[in-house]
Amino acid sequence: MAGKHILVVEDEEDIRELLRHNLAKDGYTVSVAATGEEGLRRARAETPDAVLLDLMLPGVDGLEVCRALKRDKKTEKIPIVMVTAKGEEADIVAGLELGADDYITKPFSPKVLVARLRAVLRRRARPPAAPDSVLRVRTITIDPGRHEVKVGEKPVELTFTEFRLLQLLAGRPGWVFTRYQIVNAIRGDDYIVTDRAVDVQVVGLRKKLGPAGKWIETVRGVGYRFKD
Question: Which of 124-128, 130-134, 214-218 has the lowest mean pLDDT?
Fold first, then answer.
């Protein structure tokens, strides 16, 4: 991923410089912004390959920056990784539902942050699978046309909802889905949204997948993802 252009939007100078230094050391071209307004201007002018976005910014906060970037045709495809203080679960969920790709909590390991950013860029570069194509992830094979799932060579009987849930998560390994996003993808906007409904489906799916169920990870306070 060396040579990719990363925009860092962070108001704390020491963290901004820490990010700039570690990204540059890893071969990235880095530009920085200290406010949400400056971050928006730079993103629109430079169209970076990804944005590292602090949520607690003076003036226009990170959620507003994310919303504005995702509404703009010029910047809507730019991956956004939120950088946030621990405990802001509501903001993390809101950011992911606005279209952010991942989040990093403060304090963070620079090496972990760079690895997570690299994973986001890799996922974005990966062409999406056709909706009806056979999907093979780790030991799991998902055949939408036949509505069949196998773990290794062993068939697994899933309900319609469990099948759609697995297809959603496994179709984008590493991607964090909030419970609300999962319900919308599986049932549509008219389905009553409850955290419990999604959690029950995940428990049942993990049980049926056996040892392979461990690849479905709980992201505490946020939702679920299939381990990348």
Answer: 124-128
In a domain, 130, yes or no: no
* 28 and 112 housed in the same domain: yes
Domain range enclosing 202: 135-226
- CATH of residue 107's domain is 3.40.50.2300
pLDDT band at 2 (very low <50, low <70, confident <90, very high): low
User: At 110, is the secondary structure helix, strand, or coil?
Assistant: helix
Domain co-membership, 120 together with 157: no
Classified as helix, coil or strand, 142 is: strand
Claim to verify: residue 97 and residue 36 sit in the same structural domain = yes
Please tell me the pTM assigned to this model: 0.72
- Specify whether the CB–CB gap between 81 and 53 falls below 8 A: yes
Q: What is the DSSP letter of 12?
A: -
Question: Tokens standing for 227?
Answer: 């381990």
Question: What is residue 132's three-state secondary structure?
Answer: coil
- Per-residue pLDDT band at 106 (split at 50, 70, 90): confident
Domain count, the chain: 2
* 35 & 105 share domain: yes
What pLDDT digit, counting tens, does each position of 155-172 carry?
A: 999 988 889 899 999 988
β-pair partners for 223: 178, 219
Query: Cα dist. 185→138, 180, 182, 207 in Å?
Result: 23, 9, 5, 22
